[in-house]
Amino acid sequence: MTQSSDRLDRVEALLATVAESQARTQIIVEQNAAGLRETRAIADSNARAIEAWSTRIEDGIAEAEEVSSSIAANTNTRMEQAIADTVQMIANLGQQQQETDQRFNNLLEEARADRQRAEQHKAEADQRFETFLAEARADRAEMRAAREQWQLEAQANATEHRAFTQNIQVLLAEIARLWQRVAG
Predict the structure, then answer these.
(1) Do the beta carbons of residue 17 and residue 153 sit within 8 Å?
(2) What is d(CA 20, CA 136) in angstroms, rounded to the nearest whole number?
(3) Residues 97-135: pLDDT tens digits?
(4) Which domains does the chain have, with CATH numbers?
(5) DSSP secondary structure letter of residue 184
(6) Is the whole-model pTM more than 0.85?
């Protein structure tokens, strides 16, 4: 009875450990999801910035065609600088996008690894639980067999007791008969 209780306590402790592990994994997954949302927001912002700069470049080209030839040289210089800045900015945005993608991929890999660890912990906990359950069932079967053996022994003892009682009664009756013969 105490062994079964100890095993049940161990099962409960194991289930509590699994619950804690699953809670920690859930927190990590939520953190990863928040990081992914932040990364997506940055990528969207970068895309809008690229589109805005694209429009500015087109506006600059239209303005350059309208200005006079004396301003054209100045405008060309400014446009070249704007283009260079835009190209540099696009390169920077591309680099930021690559870094964002890399962070996203790292977060995704971490989430997969966390999920795999959680599944492994769950599988181990399930296996331990099944082992404890099998042991508990074996204990129950053993206790049932012991109880059945005890009942058989109790029945045998009762039968022996009845036989003994009958033998004593017969013996006492024989003694009484002999006593009456001697006394009589």
Answers:
(1) no
(2) 25
(3) 888 889 888 888 888 888 899 899 889 888 988 998 888
(4) 2-150 (1.10.287)
(5) -
(6) no
